[in-house]
Amino acid sequence: MSTSLHAAPGSTAEDLFIDLFSDTFGAEKAGYLYSQYHFFDIYNNDRFADFLIENGAKRIAIEIDDEATHNPRLVSRNKYYDDLLKQNSMIYLGWDVYRWAVRQMQQQPDTVKDELRVFLGSSPHFREVEDYLPCQRSKAIEADNLELKEHQKDALASLEEMRRRHETIALIYHATGTGKTVTAVTDAKRIGKRTLFIAHTNELVTQAAETFKRLWTDVSVGIYMGPLKEKDAFVVCGSVQSVALHTEEFGETDFEYLIIDEAHHAAAETYQKILSYFKPSFTLGLTATPERADDRNILDIFKNTAHKLDIKTAVEIGELVSVRCIRIHTNIDLTKVRFNSVRYNIRDLESKIFVPDRNKLIVDTFMEYVSDKRTVIFCASVKHAEEIAAKIRERGVPAQAVSGSMKMSGRNEILAKFKHGEIKVLCACDLLNEGWDCPETEVLFMARPTMSKVLYTQQLGRGMRLSDGKEFLMVFDFVDNASQYNMPYSLHRLMKLKEYHPGKRVLGTKQQMQEDDELYRRGEKPEALIDYPVSATDYEAVDVFNWQDEAAGMLSQMEFIRRVDVQSETVERYIREGKIIPDMIVPLSEHKKLKYFREETLNAAAEEYGWTLIDDENRKELFMDMVRQMDMSYSYKPVLLKAIFAHADKNGRVPIDNIVAYFREYYEGRKASGLKAEKANSIFAKGGYTDAEARRNILANPFKRFEDMQMLRHTKTLGIIEVEPTVWKNLTDEEKREILRICDEKSEKYFQRIEHS
User: What is the enclosing helix (H) or strand (E) of 737?
Assistant: First the structure.
């Protein structure tokens, strides 16, 4: 993201977008937004999307820029072309890409929110992007000296057993960096049949081909990607895009074994085309992402999970390094720092933590504990990073600040010196969360308060790689005073550990954890902590409460209103009057509070007040019941429904101008035929009305009742009326004909009644 993104004073464009996103979908959903998501473009250059979010089976990139950023008249030609390459590479990866301008978010927030609803859906299925484990680099494994880990042997045994049961498709869920590809290649080699391996990036395809070549030396291995079309090899490693575009180049039975990498994308159209075309004897999906509920659950496709491996297990089996932790308490008060659902207000935060006492504590801690160890200090800003690095250099230790705003050449030089030990300390604010790796890192300082689980876990991942001579990763958590609702993440909070002993392992093998438990029980320090001035008898209870986790199982006020068949004003009034009590209130600021409700609270309110509960399962039936029982003080409801069915697109959306034109034609047509148009007080009977007056009339009556029942919605800035998607997509042709027939019958009876009144 360019530096021009710093918008209003005290607020970045990223913060502004998060606020608009939260207003649109609920603050608890903003935790699914992944800021500065790292990816590779088609030339394998490092790139960062401003935001990435997964919605069902789709990955969606969101870019925020000022108006000048992509205007070829205002930026250099190279910069313009580079921006196009970035966007095109996202599309090549199969992502949807949406862009908004800073000024647009500032001046037209309602438009941005309406567009978000249209692009992402009114009831989206957001989910966590990935497992966020540190990537392990490919190791040069030869077939002759390959030693499989126990989890790989277990997975292979499970796959063999599944085939004995005549099962033909399976999924392996192993954490990133734990050898999924090696497991798959070993299984394919054991089967010994022609194999197709599918992945979604050039790098993954190339890495897989190299692994096949090393481990299965007596067969030919080809690449089917871009200009390379080695389709006749015994093993073909292809990109999903290239294979999906050229399935006609292959016979559907050409391959006996099909491997789908990053299988959590398998519901996407390109993957589905491949899965439906080829007819292998066995299909294996690989993923680091656990199966999750979305538009199409991954297990709906892969049926069975052959083997699982999560981050805790990855450490337990020695695939990632064990982790110790020391908590350093500061006297900094964050309780008054403003925050949205996932981020602190940067100006408030900097004013609190960019103080000499806290900076001195960070530097003193480094010098006292780990001045001889390779350390990464995560800081809150570029200024903060530069200040800490300067103070460490003053104490005689080589240290440098690094950030995304530096020139790439200078940044890479610093990172190389750190890797080779010439620089002992890196102070980073926004660069090392993703896309960089140094297994030799021994110590992490978490000196940047963050409410983002994603960001904290990314930072942790920079130190969890295995390295020769590295027994454990030491994490220093700088713990500032905060309220229950704006508490920053710490290692213990991340792992939900309520007890803290200084230096004790937080993650480790079962034996390591047992040994630590025994030592601390006796009040003894582990040998690894001899040089650390901590007492093994110290103990602290940790508050691991996380409002986002609590809210994940509750209904927001927005969702509560969507679930009952009464007007939103009624629910809001009942809450104000204390007739409905929220189960959790999250104070974002002095003037803004989030209210959440348990399912039992919703059910109790519905029973007490005689409300009908609405969900995606019964919404269509309730809509049909509403049409069948339609009461009519005017003739507007049938006319509105007929206008919608006459002009709706495939998604059930109709420009309101089309509805206004339909109303005008309908009532003026009645008058032209000598029929009564409406009651005398109706503007459609009086005539002489403007389109704006007709629009106001339609939105007040009859639209309002359908809106209150969550059956129709009005996207004001786009001028669109939309049928609730869970209603529209489930209506059969027969039901649509029934609705139109009911509308005609109701209208006829209504006009018969007013003709004689």
Answer: helix 733-755
Same structural domain, 425 and 451: yes
Q: For the whole model, what pTM was predicted? A: 0.69
Distances (CA, A) of 17 to 13, 104, 341: 6, 11, 12
Range of the domain at 197: 150-316
Domain assignment present for residue 379? The answer is yes
DSSP strand pairing (221-225 vs 235-239): parallel
Segments in 420-509 forming alpha helices (H): 453-461, 491-494
Which secondary structure element, helix H or strand E, spans residue 541, and what is its range? Answer: strand 540-541
Quote the pLDDT of residue 222.
96
More confident residue, 358 or 591: 358
Runs of H (alpha helix) within 543-682: 547-552, 557-562, 568-576, 599-609, 619-628, 636-647, 656-672
For residue 683 the two structure tokens come to 């503007």
Give per-residue pLDDT as tens, 661-712: 999 999 999 999 999 999 999 999 999 999 999 999 999 888 887 887 778 9
140 assigned to some structural domain: no
Identify the H or E element spanning 229.
Answer: strand 228-229
Which residue is it, tokens 């339909």? 662
Q: For CA atoms 216, 218, 224, 225, give the dihedral sign.
A: positive
For residues 28 and 156, state if they share a domain.
no
pLDDT in tens, 212-232: 999 999 999 999 998 899 999
Q: How many domains does the chain have?
A: 5
Q: Please check whether residue 256 is in contact with residue 215, taking contact to mean a CB–CB distance below 8 angstroms.
A: no
